[in-house]
Amino acid sequence: MLAALLVASVAAVPVRAQQASNPVVAERMRLMSDIGAASKIMGDMVSGRSAFDAARAAQAASTLAQLSSRVPDAFTANETDPASEALPSIWANWSTFTARADAMRTAAQNIDTSSEGGLRAGLAELGGACRACHTTFRE
Ligand code: HEC
Which CATH architecture has domain 2-9+21-137? Predict the structure, then answer.
């Protein structure tokens, strides 16, 4: 259920990165889009949109962990752009923000991609990590 919500929220988000004229903002938005794409590969498997494939899921989880570790660097500079949905509270609460990024990386690393049930449970955790940050730090 949570995984389905995750997929729905990712699918509903248009790619806005191209609309940001500030290159720093465009880059961090692209990073988030890539995080969304890696999540969607796995989400599609548990929602039945694609067949469960353990190797492909493991690859996506590993990509996601790597992308997650790039989040703090991508957001270090306090840059703005009209297309951005990032809230200024990120830079006022930097250690909380980076802790949420760490939590996403841990959730990605902990996903058991060997079975569909494991993937489903891992994605529920992951979806919680996405929401924990978006709720506080994204418009
Ligand atoms: C550490 C905080 C944090 C975590 C964790 C996080 N996000 Fe984000 N996300 C953001 C912020 C901040 C933005 C807005 C960036 C901007 O517009 O400048 C964003 C934007 C996005 C966007 C929109 C990108 C665009 O082109 O506008 C997508 C898609 C997204 N996140 C997916 C995810 C998914 C999926 C996860 C979990 C696997 C996740 N995010 C976890 C902070 C986070």
Answer: Up-down Bundle (1.20)
Residues linked to residue 135 through DSSP beta bridges, in sequence order:
none
Q: Tell me how far the alpha carbon of residue 90 lies from the centroid of ligand 1, in angstroms.
A: 12
Q: Which amino acid is at 57?
A: A
> Domains of the chain: which residue ranges?
2-9+21-137
| pLDDT tens digits along 47-85 | 999 999 999 999 999 999 999 999 999 999 999 999 999
Atom of ligand 1 minimally distant from the CA of 68: 5
Pocket test for ligand 1, best of 21, 24, 35 (most atoms within 8 A of CB): 35
Question: What are 37-54's pLDDT values in tens digits?
Answer: 999 999 999 999 999 999
Predicted TM-score (pTM) of this structure:
0.92
